[in-house]
Write a structure and sequence with these properties.
Layout (H helix, E strand, L loop, with lengths): L3 E4 L5 H6 L6 H6 L4 E4 L1 H4 L4 H9 L6 E5 L2 H6 L6 H10 L7 E7 L9 H10 L6 E4 L4 H4 L1 H12 L4 E2 L2 E2 L11 H9 L15 E5 L4 H20 L5 E5 L6 H15 L19
Helix pairs in contact: 7-9, 11-12
Length: 279
């Protein structure tokens, strides 16, 4: 039984000013959180040497959820991208068991008629990895038939369905530039809390105000506690519009769950770094 928590990235300007003062920013992040979304791989496949440096900066229990490149998911829409897919899978090999799941994030236009393409794609993937799929077409959330069709395709390879919960964020109008930007970019979809596997993955978007973020995740505390008691090992990623305090909030979420599940192992103690000086 394990709860991994993390953020959308492992470095941020606000964090660099506070505690990421050395060159090994991932190492500092990994002393605070136990997982990270590999969003950078969506834009470009890293070199194996770069990925090896990620492995060196993290312990064996740290977990990456690495996103497939957009050439595979958005430009080729899972068809005719064997070369790009192979290059990506070879590049992440140095992570070894740190690869918690390969994340297939699909565009909002990828709907129920495309599930056959997804099913064929998933069946061709190597069994060395676990897979997690994020969909954004509204029919998957509002049509029981569409949801069942997708769940059946995922079940063939024991892939997880990743929800991105933005319901708390869209509950009130934005009050800052960061919130206004997120308001135009983030998906607005119904809440989904069903786990398909023993390793569910949740993406949660709060607000700039910590108290609003915490109030919004209270239903997820109940869900995660339930999953842990069922023997599942969930991963929860905490986002906020500016992400300035996301690592602290991720740790707070873990603490809130641990109050209810005392047997849950504590998070690591953060590495303390000296403040930057001029000399």
């Amino acid at each position: 039984m394990r709860l991994h928590v993390g953020c959308a990235m492992w470095t941020h300007k606000a964090w660099q000013a506070r505690w990421q003062t050395g060159p090994d920013r991932l190492r500092a992040y990994a002393s605070r959180c136990t997982a990270v979304e590999g969003n950078t791989t969506f834009y470009a496949t890293p070199t194996s040497e770069t990925v090896a440096s990620w492995a060196r900066q993290t312990g064996p229990d740290f977990r990456f959820v690495v996103k497939l490149p957009r050439t595979v998911t958005h430009e080729r829409r899972l068809a005719g991208a064997d070369a790009e897919l192979g290059a990506f899978l070879r590049a992440i090999e140095p992570l070894g068991p740190r690869t918690h799941a390969v994340w297939v994030q699909l565009p909002g236009s990828f709907g129920p008629p495309d599930v056959g393409v997804l099913a064929s794609f998933l069946r061709r993937l190597p069994t060395a990895h676990r897979y997690a799929v994020e969909v954004r077409h509204p029919d998957f959330f509002t049509s029981p038939g569409a949801a069942r069709l997708l769940e059946e395709a995922l079940a063939v390879v024991a892939a997880e369905w990743v929800p991105f919960d933005t319901t708390a964020f869209f509950r009130h109008p934005p009050t800052s530039d960061a919130e206004r930007d997120a308001w135009t970019r983030k998906p607005r979809l119904p809440l989904r809390t069903t786990a398909l596997t023993d390793r569910p993955i949740v993406r949660y978007l709060g607000r700039d105000a910590d108290e609003d973020t915490i109030a919004g995740w209270l239903p997820w505390v109940d869900v995660v506690v339930g999953w842990l008691r069922e023997g599942r090992s969930p991963t929860v990623f905490v986002h906020t519009p500016d992400d300035a305090r996301a690592p602290d909030l991720a740790r707070r979420f873990h603490d809130d769950v641990r109050v209810r599940v005392p047997d849950l192992a504590p998070l690591p103690d953060p590495i303390e770094t000296a403040p930057l000086t001029l000399f």
